[in-house]
Amino acid sequence: MDKFIRELGSNGWGDAMEERIVVADPVADPQGYQRELLALLDGQDPVAVLAATPPTFRERTSGLSEGLLGRRPAPSEWSVAELLGHLWDSEIAAAFRSRLILAQDTPQLIGYDQDAWATLARPSFPEMLDAFTALRTANLALISGTPEALWDRFGIHEERGPTSFRVLNQTMAGHDRAHLRQLDQTIAAVRG
Ligand code: NI
Asked: How far, rounded to the nearest angstrom, does the alpha carbon of residue 110 sit from its chain's CA centroid?
């Protein structure tokens, strides 16, 4: 998300891995990128998809050694731990943006440099997994507890324009699916 949804943008490490999952360049073609994430959702209930991700991530990574969790499949691709860190950062951003959309009138949804965030200090893998799970649970409470009539409230996304609460949730669910695929590929690659 160059600024906003630069998914491992063209200069970021992890770029190659993400490109295998999502074709559209998130910086050059943010609308196409969003369409691809929504296509990954494939009409499924975003709440169900979002709820399934933390336990799925936990299950697929249980038993992996610290060494494997931290191993990059290639110098330019994220490790499992770095991938979780990206989901954690995305969850923080979504938590803030969804609250802006619901509580303020057409707020600006400012971007962040995900590659720069990825360099910041993080908790250990188990702590981050617990934190991600807890924040996702809180965000799901917000989503589930928000009346349907409010799902069309929107903010102005820096790159994608007007973005409703509904589309934000759907995009996050598609983003989960993209990165769970990446997770499977990463685990297979580092196990060798
Ligand atoms: Ni991503």
From this structure: 16
Measure 147 CA to ligand 1 centroid, in angstroms: 28
**CA 175 to centroid of ligand 1, rounded, Å:** 6
Q: What percent of the chain has pLDDT over 90?
A: 70
Query: In the chain, what are the domain boundaries?
Result: 15-191
**CATH of 15-191 given 1.10.3720.10, 1.20.120.450, 3.30.450.30, 1.20.1260.10:** 1.20.120.450
* 149/46 Cα distance (integer angstroms): 17
Query: Ligand 1 centre and the CA of 78: distance in Å?
Result: 11
Which two tokens mark 26?
């998130």
pLDDT tens-digit series, residues 7-45: 433 333 344 445 456 777 777 788 888 888 888 888 899
Spatial CB neighbours of 110, under 8 Å, sequence gap ≥ 6: 3, 4, 158
CB atoms < 10 A from the CB of 172, how many? 25
How close is the Cα of 86 to the center of ligand 1, in Å?
A: 7
- Regarding pTM above 0.70, the answer is yes
Does residue 172 contact residue 90 with C-beta atoms inside 8 Å?
yes
